[in-house]
Amino acid sequence: MNSFLLDNLQSYFIGEIRENELLKFHTGFRIGGPARLMLIPKGIEDLRRAIVWAGREKIPYRVIGNGTSVLAHHDGYDGLVIKLVNVLNHIRIEGHRIYAGAGATMTALLRQAINHRLTGLERWWGVPSSIGGWLIRMGMAQAPELDYLIQEVYVMEPDGSITRWIEPSQLFVEDNSNIIKRVIIEVVFQLKPGDSEGTANKITARQVEWEFLTQICLPMAGPVFLTHYKDLTEVFIKTGILSLHKGRAAFLGIGNGYVANLGGTEYDEVLDLLEEIKERVTKLTDLKFRIGLSLLQTKEVIRC
User: Fold this and answer.
1) Which ranges carry the FAD-binding PCMH-type domain (predicted)?
2) Hey, what CATH topology would domain 91-196 get?
3) How confident is the model over 34-88, as pLDDT tens digits?
4) Which residues, listed in sequence order, are joined to residue 225 by a DSSP beta bridge?
């Protein structure tokens, strides 16, 4: 990175700046080479400074959360990676509405909803992603739940301005390259009242699934597939693809699929494995689904 540019950034960026940071330390797969530059902003204004600076200097940038659905190339990323850590993680409840920062986790959101006897999000119990990451995955899958579970979304545009979207699904109508340049700031959920016992019963199966996954002491990421279908487990059972591996990448057919790194897994092994599963399932069923990972590559990020 040009020392003049870096000095310029350091003059007003408050958060942490890291050069040649290995991406494998920031993804669930534990795969990935160095990012030329990584910024960890202190707050929303710091985030705005980073995005505006990158745009002004024509430096490619991508924003990640906890990296549970990010697959980074072993060559790394020749640009700026902005990582949201302990920022935009607020959760505020007003009546049946929940105002949640994009950096908060789905687990934290579900716990707050359950504590306040609000229902509607139970099937995502155990999903390890941030709320922002979850929303992007849902949008890319064109999930019908978006427009009745979510009241509005606040997004930071590439110029640093913040826009309000009252039809969340419209965020994902445009080309993917525009979507990933935006940063989700806050999501406002409109839930329904429910009873604690009924809500707890709804999440029991998801909790068992998640507890099983957490007992597998391996780097893992997912869910790896996007679909309208709520849970692909039955599909994986019927097609005989509950488990499969390619090289050192192992697939687990639970929920919408997870991939574990058995040690030294390569970027291409993960993609080849998922493409094989997708091909086998589509041959045996009429179900349509997509690979739902953010692919962080040397030149660009692509959402499959």
Assistant:
1) 30-194
2) 3.30.465
3) 999 999 999 999 999 999 999 988 889 999 988 888 999 999 999 999 999 889 9
4) 291
Tokens, residue 57: 């200097």
What ranges do the domains of the chain cover? 8-83, 91-196, 217-296
Topology of the domain comprising 217-296 = 3.90.78
Q: Could you tell me the pLDDT band of residue 231, with boundaries at 50, 70 and 90?
A: confident
Contact at 8 Å (CB) between 155 and 182? yes
Output the pLDDT for position 80. 92
Confirm if 133 and 69 have CB atoms less than 8 A apart: yes
What pLDDT is recorded for position 270? 93
Domain at 8-83, CATH class: alpha beta
